[in-house]
Specification:
This protein has helices at 3-28, 32-53, 59-85, 88-97, 99-111, 117-134, 144-171, 174-197, 201-232, 235-242, 245-255, 263-281. By secondary structure, the protein is mainly alpha-helical. It holds the Pfam family EamA.
């Protein structure tokens, strides 16, 4: 195995862990929309010096940046709606688990990245295991609204994964692409929060500021590591490995939010690991 895939593997796993923590912060927020807007704004401000220090992205990258900003806005809206309607242990697995197969399919169609039979089987097993995390324990019943928004968020995740893989390669610099991405995303989310919350925005933003600042560190980390991995490795393995955030998210939800995990989900974690291993071998 060459050095690049090993580094991409580490980056994707690091991105997964950071994403789970970031989602936990979001779930704990009193006003998730304002929280996400403030967090993204802090990310944009933190990265703003890079806008001057790094070369301006070429137009070939800007079409991906603009499309990515629209997709990530839709993702945030769907994620917030799902989190408001269901437990993190219900919506997060569906939200993240449906994305790898979609990302692999999109990468095959859009980017022409080949998927062999073993890789396809591994993606199928991993995706099925991740989705199984979301199914309630005996006696429970899934919430249709929460699952619908979670599936929408998964579709957006697959879309921006492939879009950003193309964009970061066109930009030639992961840091430059990352910086402009957060500027555009902060602008769209901030405008949405201002319009929806009106005069209450300032007070709610002050309330969310401390946790949003902490979350922004994980926000930059998860997206930055994902972009780096996508710049040096094929989309499908990176996307699938990044979705192991479901395991970290389930553990955090069980420990911090006191949501049920269950023996069945522990078994699904082992099945997931097998599917991802098969994907890598494929």
């Amino acid at each position: 195995m060459s050095e690049a895939p090993v580094i991409a593997l580490a980056a994707a796993l690091g991105s997964a862990m950071a994403h789970a923590v970031m989602t936990l912060f979001t779930k704990q927020a009193r006003d998730m929309l304002v929280f996400r807007a403030v967090s993204m704004t802090i990310c944009a401000l933190a990265l703003s010096p890079l806008l001057i220090l790094l070369p301006f992205p070429p137009w070939e990258a800007w079409r991906f940046l603009l499309l990515g900003a629209a997709i990530i806005w839709a993702f945030n809206m769907a994620m917030i709606a799902a989190m408001q309607r269901g437990q993190m242990n219900l919506v997060y697995p569906v939200m993240r688990g449906s994305a790898p197969a979609l990302a692999g399919l999109f990468a095959f169609i859009v980017l022409g990245e080949p998927l062999g039979p073993a890789a396809i089987l591994g993606l199928s097993i991993a995706s099925a295991a991740l989705i199984a995390f979301a199914w309630p324990e005996r006696g429970g019943a899934p919430k249709a609204g929460a699952l619908a928004f979670a599936l929408t968020a998964a579709l957006m995740t697959a879309s921006y994964t492939v879009n950003d893989a193309s964009g970061v390669r066109a930009a030639g610099s992961a840091l430059s692409y990352l910086s402009w991405f957060f500027v555009l995303s902060a602008a769209s989310l901030g405008a949405t929060a201002l319009i929806r919350r009106g005069r209450a925005f300032a007070m709610q933003a002050r309330s969310e500021l401390p946790r949003a600042a902490a979350s922004s560190v994980f926000n930059i980390t998860t997206y930055g590591l994902a972009l780096y991995a996508l710049s040096i490795a094929p989309v499908a393995p990176v996307a699938a490995l990044r979705e192991t955030s479901i395991v970290f998210g389930a553990i955090l939800a069980a420990i911090v939010l006191k949501e049920p995990f269950g023996a069945r989900r522990a078994v699904m974690a082992l099945v997931l690991a097998g599917g991802l291993a098969l994907l890598q071998l494929g």
